Amino acid sequence: MPQLNPTPWLLIMLTSWLTFTLIVQPKLLPFTPTNSPSNKLTTTINLSPWNWPWS
């Protein structure tokens, strides 16, 4: 069963994760989002209980 042999894909997986964590991630982290969230006032909704006709 070749699925259980980790030799072909283990090295590829490790190098891709190392590439991502060491090269790609530090380049992406300094970017700031263009649409920063604004400070909106939250409105509270007054909920009244439902009056069931059979109670």
UniProtKB/TrEMBL annotation:
GO terms for biological process: proton motive force-driven ATP synthesis. Keywords: ATP synthesis, CF(0), Hydrogen ion transport, Ion transport, Membrane, Mitochondrion, Transmembrane, Transmembrane helix, Transport. The chain crosses the membrane at residues 6-24. GO terms for molecular function: proton transmembrane transporter activity. It is found in: Mitochondrion membrane. One of its GO terms (cellular component) is mitochondrial membrane. Belongs to the ATPase protein 8 family. PANTHER family: ATP SYNTHASE PROTEIN 8. This is ATP synthase complex subunit 8.
